[in-house]
Specification:
Calcium-transporting ATPase, transmembrane domain; ten-stranded mixed beta sheet
Length: about 900
């Protein structure tokens, strides 16, 4: 359900008038009650729902069929497996439902869109989405964004007070008016008010329509994962059904020829179908993901979307935010460049020298921020904090005598005090922030602004901006400095809020040094070595971003950077300008000129990106193939970039801080947020390690999980085919021991421990340049499976025919303890283990299987058991299994040549690799 379609002025009208009782009741019927009801179903309901799963219905049918054919042991074994599987599934579902239920707060069910609510001064947890119409709030939005830095929310511009401007008449939109919106589930830490007025907000969304409700809904009903592996798995299962159909027809035809009773024909024919679908397939297929998720947790990487782990194994491009991701969160003040009379002074390292204390430049540094005191400590954006600390000023707590001010700032031990009257917090869309302040003791107010230098300069009087502004800015940004511009304006008494950010006086530049994190260069080197492309997506200056990209190795020193500026079509012409290489649009489209460049990288800003996306979408796809730096990108543009990269067949990873990157993190195939929260809903993955070393770890575990899924699926498919071949051969002589078949399948009840053990292989220690396949329908995988099927089929048929050629062989149609059953039993059991070894792939995506002690132990134990009962017959075991180990003349069966076949069969893996 969309937002209430109203203009900002309508919200102020509802604020003034309020809703009548009839309006409230009508809107409650229309929008529903304000609750996010996560109903945790009872165990009984979960059990019924689980048992009615088509897979378990098929298993129930199979158990009934096996019982009718006296396969009691097998039926009991499968029932035990199913009960364990159902119990595990119920426990997981119950745990997930309870966890989701815990994030539900008690909401007021009486609230409807349009209601007016008063925000308590001591803070609260928002029960709905509401837009501020008076006052200011300090909010912790970590539940939504994963970013723990408090955010300042200001009231919506009021058209009735003359401060609305065009914004007051535009339709209210959650994204565009984010800085005025309090989101459901976020924690309001503090409220600020002016002239004694209460802090009020108008409800705009309730229940599942809120930001929190949409997140809960996305967790409860996740978007289906579109991955080739899962499509191919269904195709493979349909192929198994086709094989079962052939066996079904064969069994019926054979039974009719031998004049078998109808009841027996039905049971035996359906039995062929039931053994084709592996009972443990669903559980075994998810084992690799479960173990990978556990290993990721040990690496302090938390996952709320486990199915994404497999997809991460295919990632071949990773987008990185810059500040706080590639570089340190903290900024160091390197120096300042003040402006006086339209000219730059020499660079100064200290902004708080005695002769500057009362300057507008320092006043702007000390007041133009959104810092707040929480428990006596200043908290807020790291840049604001560093800039304020550099001034040497202090921020005073509010008092009743200064209720008209947000806060008061002053130099230490000084009576020179400036009170902040109103804040307009930083907007990533506008790329600036402003405050209105007043020097205590004066009546006139001042407006201070800081932001991106290009934006701030465009809002200043032309004569106050130095002529060499562009050259000085370029010089600093090329060195990798982060540059912030400051501006000031003395306000007239009748000036409205919406006109204050115009005709300002340019004050100068603040030069901040943003150092690379120690791990950044090494991680990017490893990614490049593995042929994983890296891209920077940032809101910072273009030249600063390019400098950082070169410093961290994202752009090698010898490579060319092409800075592309796109202009909208004008009089039928359109073109791209490059700062380093002259390139026309035609060159980009045909790439003839670019082919002469060995290595080149495109860089563009958000404006050019928007122009190209709107007017030249075909060219945008070509630019994406070599685009490395995207600067001054708005949050929605970051999301759009991820979608375009996916359109050109990239598996895209995204790593950011979880604040302005939320949309991109969710849209990427593998979005990972660097957050202190254990499991942020801002992205599928959250890393508590504050650097990008989590990215290769996630890709390595994704590759290991993907290969594990392939291995397990191939093993489970082969074990069904081997069983199918064995039963079909035994049906051909019309003598099959129910106990023997049960013994085979009871043995198979231990076999599922093998694929679970295979899933324990840890990820390979480093990333390699090749990637695992994305689907089962590929030549190497199909060749591997088909080769193993032919090997197993050939050995079983050869054994079946060879035993009949022995001089001591006697056909015994009435005794189920016969040579055919015994031979097929031993050969097929060895084949199960051999296939497990063949498909336990290790390097280059997983650690070798010999390092996986549970797998080695399980395979070795089963081999030892089989060899023991084969070479040292125990009468009790032989009778229980209906195995024949001696012929009628008491000649030991171990003289039979099929033991040589078993040895040959044991080395058959080499024939399929």
């Amino acid at each position: 359900m969309e937002d209430l379609q109203v203009t900002c002025s309508t919200l102020h009208s509802e604020h003034s008038a309020g809703l009548t009782r009839n309006q409230q009741e009508y809107r409650k019927l229309f929008f529903g009650v304000n609750e996010i009801a996560v109903k945790v179903p009872s165990l009984f309901k979960l059990l019924i729902k689980e048992v009615l799963n088509p897979f378990y219905i098929f298993q129930l049918f199979s158990v009934i069929l096996w019982s009718a054919d006296e396969y009691y042991y097998y039926a009991v074994a499968i029932v035990i497996m199913s009960v364990i599987s159902i119990a595990t599934s119920l426990y997981t579902i119950k745990k997930v439902s309870s966890t989701i239920g815990q994030i539900e707060e008690i909401l007021s069910t009486d609230l409807v869109p349009g209601d007016l609510m008063v925000i308590p001064s001591n803070g609260t947890i928002m029960p709905c989405d509401a837009v501020l119409v008076s006052g200011t709030c300090i909010v912790n939005e970590s539940m939504l964004t994963g970013e723990s830095v408090p955010v300042t929310k200001t009231n919506l511009p009021n058209p009735f007070h003359g401060d609305g401007g065009d914004e007051a008449d535009c339709p209210y939109n959650t994204e565009e008016h984010k800085r005025h919106t309090l989101f459901c589930g976020t924690n309001v830490i503090q409220t600020r008010f002016y002239t004694g007025e209460l802090v009020k907000a108008v409800v705009v969304r309730t229940g599942f329509s809120t930001a929190k409700g949409q997140l809960v809904r996305s967790i409860l009903y996740p978007k289906p994962t579109d991955f080739k592996l899962y499509h191919d798995a269904y195709i493979f299962l349909f192929c198994l059904v086709g094989v079962a159909a052939i066996g079904f027809i064969y069994s019926i035809a054979l039974s009719i020829i031998h004049e078998v009773p109808a009841k027996t024909i039905i049971i035996e024919s359906l039995d062929i179908v039931t053994i084709t679908v592996p009972p443990a397939l669903p559980a075994a297929m998810t084992a690799g993901i479960v173990y990978a998720q556990r290993r990721l947790k040990n690496l302090r990487i938390f996952c709320i979307s486990p199915q994404r782990i497999n997809i991460c194994g295919q990632i071949n491009l990773v987008c990185f935010d810059k500040t706080g991701t590639l570089t340190e969160d903290g900024l160091d003040l390197w120096g300042v460049q003040r402006v006086d009379n339209g000219s730059f002074f020499l660079s100064e390292e200290n902004a708080y020298k005695e002769n500057l204390v009362k300057s507008q430049f320092v006043a702007c540094m000390a007041t133009c921020h959104s810092l707040t005191k929480i428990d006596g400590q200043l908290s807020g954006d790291p840049l604001d904090l560093k800039m304020f600390e550099a001034t040497g000023w202090v921020s005073y707590c509010l008092s009743k005598s200064r209720a008209n001010f947000v806060c008061v700032c002053a130099p230490m031990q000084s009576t020179y005090e400036i009170g902040i009257v109103r804040q307009f917090p930083f907007s990533s869309t506008l790329q600036r922030m402003s405050v209105v302040a007043r020097l205590l003791g004066e009546k006139c107010m001042d407006a201070y602004m800081k932001g991106a230098p290009e934006v701030v300069a465009s809002l200043c009087k032309k004569e106050t901006v130095p002529e060499n502004f562009a050259e000085v800015l370029e010089g600093y940004t090329k060195q990798g400095f982060r540059v912030i511009a400051l501006a000031h304006r003395r306000l007239e008494s009748k000036l409205t809020w919406d006109h204050l950010e115009a005709k300002m006086d340019f004050l100068g530049l603040i030069i901040m040094q943003n150092k690379l994190k120690a791990e950044t260069a090494g991680v990017l080197h490893d990614l490049h070595k593995a042929r994983i492309r890296t891209v920077m997506v940032t809101g910072d200056n273009m030249l600063t971003a390019i400098s950082v990209a070169r410093d961290c190795g994202m752009i090698p020193p010898q490579d060319t950077v092409i800075i592309a500026d796109a202009l909208p079509p004008h009089n039928g012409s359109h073109f791209i300008l490059s700062q380093e290489v002259n390139i026309s649009l035609e060159d980009v489209c045909h790439e003839d000129a670019l082919k002469r460049k060995e290595q080149y990288h495109f860089a563009m800003n958000g404006k050019s990106f928007a122009v190209i996306a709107e007017h030249f979408p075909d060219m945008l796809h070509k630019l994406m193939l070599h685009g490395t730096v995207f600067a001054r990108m708005a949050p929605d543009q970051k999301t759009q970039l991820i979608e375009i990269l996916q359109d050109v067949d990239y598996y895209v990873g995204m790593c950011g801080d979880g604040a302005n990157d939320c949309g991109a993190l969710k849209r990427a195939h593998g979005g990972i947020s660097l957050s202190e929260l254990e499991a942020s809903v801002a992205s599928p993955f959250t890393s508590k390690t504050p650097n990008i070393s989590c990215v290769p770890s996630l890709i390595r575990e994704g590759r290991a999980a993907l290969i594990t899924s392939f291995c397990v699926f191939k093993f489970m498919a082969l074990y069904s085919i081997i069983q199918y071949i064995s039963v079909t051969l035994l049906y051909s002589v019309r003598i099959i021991s129910s106990k023997l078949l049960c013994s085979i399948n009871i043995f198979l009840c231990f076999i599922p421990f093998v694929p679970f053990a295979v899933s324990l292989n840890a990820a390979w220690k480093e990333l390699v340049s090749c990637r695992p396949p994305s689907g089962l329908i590929s030549a190497p995988l199909l060749l591997s499976v088909i080769t193993q099927i032919l090997i197993c089929l050939g050995f079983q048929i050869f054994t079946f025919l060879l035993v009949k050629q022995q001089p001591w062989y006697t056909a015994d149609d009435h005794n189920i303890q016969n040579f055919e059953n015994t031979s097929i039993f031993y050969v097929s059991c060895f084949q199960y283990l051999i296939v497990a070894i063949v498909f336990s792939k290790g390097k280059p995506f997983r650690q070798p299987s010999y390092k996986n002690w549970p797998f080695v132990l399980s395979v070795a134990s089963l081999y030892a058991f089989l060899l023991f009962i084969m070479f040292h017959p125990v009468e009790t075991i032989d009778d229980f299994l209906d195995v024949r180990t001696q012929n009628k003349r008491n000649a030991p069966l171990h003289q039979f040549p099929y033991y040589l076949l078993l040895i040959t069969d044991a080395i058959s893996p080499s024939l399929s690799l």
